[in-house]
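Example (one chain per record):
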Amino acid sequence: MIRARRIGVTAVAALAALAGAPGLAHAQHPSETLPLATTTDSGLPPGWRVTGEGPARELVWRSRKAVPMGDARVEFHAANRLLGVPKPAKDGRTFRLALDDAGDTPLKDLRVLAGGNRLDAPADNSPDGKRSSPAAQPPAQAPANTVDPGKPGAYRTVTGEYRLDPVKLPGFAAPVEMQAVVVAPTGVTGKRPLALFLHGRHSTCYKPGDDEYATGEWPCPTGTKSIPSHKGYLQDQKLLASQGYVTVSISANGINGQDFAAEDGGAQARSSLVRQHLARWAGWASHPATAPAAVAKAPKADLSRVLLVGHSRGGEGVNRAAMDSLYPAPAAQDGYKGPVRWKIRGTVLIGPTIFGHNPVADVPSATILPGCDGDVSDLQGEVYVDGTRGVSRGTALHSAVYMVGANHNFFNSEWTPGRAEAPAWDDFWEDEEQRDPVCSTGTATRLTADQQHTAGATYIAAAARLFVGGDDRVRPLLDGTGRRAPSADPARVLTHAVGARRGAGFLPDGPVTVTGARLCSAIDPDPAVACLDPEAGGSSPHFAWWQTERETGRRAVALKWSAPGTAAGVRPAAPLSLSGSKELALRVFVPPNTTGTQLDVSVADASGRRATLGRVQVDGLPGSDRTASYWAREVRVPLTAAIRAGLDLKHVKSLELTPRSGSGQAWLVDAFGWAPGTPAVKAVALPRVDVGRVTVKEGDSGTRTYRVPVTVSGKGAGQVRVYVLDPDTGRATDRLVTVRPGGDAVDVPVVVKGDTRFAYDVQHDILVKAVRNAVVGSYRGGVTAENDDPEPTITVTPVADRVTEGQTLTWRLSLSEAAGVDLWQPLLVKPVTEGAELSTKDVDPQWLLDHAGVEADPERPLSQADLWLWPEIPAGATTLDVTVPTVGDQVAEPAESVRLEPTDLEGEPLPTVPALTGTVVDAP
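Predicted structure:
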């Protein structure tokens, strides 16, 4: 039998014990369950089925065409919550999720999502379907910067490769390759800084001569070759090498082929691989004679000046490597055990994932957000900027680089059609019936592959020159000042930033009072509370979804007006200081494709003095229903008016935004005091939190209390937010917790009740996110209670299997014992083995419509109506009657029969359960 979605194990998450105080915030999932889409003969939406027996049952979705292997995580959702992350099959079309991983969520409103994109529903091309509004033209070209880092340097370059013995990483069955391509300058003296590149999650193997074959297997099968994704950044490497950097791009196919089972998507494994390579480079710098030929030809690398560049999941991997280099990971989960003999000066993250929402606040970063990203399409990499605010000292610059018209793949030439050795594709898929006004090939805003890669190389070089070289002349390209690098033309590149010499700020995430506008939540199922209406069309990188349906502490200020002049006020709990700042920098966004939104910016001090600093204009980005274009522009106003008015800038109590446009909308992300310059960054010693997982047997009786394994290492004290997910309801309960190394503040007890009834495995999970003075490595874990009871057997007993027309055929299904979950048994109407068969006009027409979704006409045998019955035996019950209501007529007919065959969801008969047969005869 198939198990329905109920759970009998109880979880007790005593969050009040976390901080010893009441007042938990509750994140309640919507109670309404939406109906299924049009169903197939399996009773599930098209493309879905359930397979397997007993504990091996899986929910399976099969796409009508191959889903290219990418970096966004494919997720199954149902009833407005995450079911789990399925395992992909070799065919690239089939994805399987063990039903034990899905908790008790009803299998209703099933969806497949990846990076915010829905994969299991075609675009709505009907006349009534939502269509994108006409896109705006590209933004105006910004003035040129005084320094252009995209220009090649004076050095010639040399290229080589090395291949070392593979390494074994925790949680991965097959060893991972240690392979890389090196591009270095020639004719230089002394040590040179090192830039390491890590590619993202792409297909791993291909078959030469076959343009369709690309798989995610590892090791690669016989007759196939490894896809050289690590060679896709040679253009970027050569540019940096010409400017004096030693560069190395490492291969990670062994991780790509195995990370589907990793709870963190492979972030820790990628960090381990990066640090394995850095350790080798440190060793070669100390002992040059041991270096491979490709490294020996290069200048000696200066490991005190390292830049990490990561693309997509590689971005999350290098972020974790920066974290692990400062705050060591627990030994059991780390694949590198040696000393840290390097210093990471900054990271460049290209279209990155950040499943853990755990950026490293004290390592400078530049995150490239591709405006036409069809893979990580929610542009969740914005969290590498927004997620660092208030976490540490704030001296590290964190820049977001929005590149209009860029897709995800074309930053890597080995992922670019026409340049790649293996099959490659444009990740922003084309819909020929409804071309996207922003991102379809040939539009005014879409970049070509060469334009995109050149722009990407330019901004990688900009980050290297600022973070590693310390050249502050490059900062205006990254920090929201609004300058361009001509080498990146014709790309339109916009930036905003936090950190560096930004001082105190107005942060909607903190304790604030808002007047004349709405303090909204980034993530909330209630449209009245959420910042962005789900019907708005398009999405915002600032509001990228995490792991819960509601989040505490991610907010913005939403303005909406129908006439100019109504001020929106933001007042923090305590006055803040803008002393030492030159300007006030605001991050504000407006709806895509809108222009001319004007806002007056005013501040007031604690004594009531008020000054209008100036007027800003904010234009929307080019956007469509498929893009994440609700992205903040950085605008600045000088503080000179406040100084002239005699305001006490050490005690500024409020900020006001007054619309001067006729009507419109705007969202304030934050506002900071700003001054030019890039201060030196010194990492703060912080506590690190890692959540583990333990699996236990439920037992046959009594209760046992287990605790979610949580490790706190490092130094100092900090604050994290802990979310406890209820496995029965999906409700997340959260609390702010102060953590210290070796402490047990994150103490989540889980009570497992033993019984002898068959049920599901149950995952009692928690999530952790850094809030202040802390870092989080492994962000999700918990206690898994394994079912250890056998599944009941089923028998069939006729109750009324021979009736006259107009009566009801009835059979009784009986279980050998009650189960702790609902069980249902699919029954397929099959042709009878002898005699006449009941037709569609011999049964109740409403019953037929309810079960088969078809009308009685034209009359045909029931077995030709794709008719399934789904009897469900409730938890705790042992019997259920199955009925087929018939109708009478005035036609003399021979005896007619029906045959219902128990099957699995592949339509295969179950040999252990007999068929249900019944006969209907004319009334006397």
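Caption: Residues 4-42, 122-132 have pLDDT under 50 and may be disordered.
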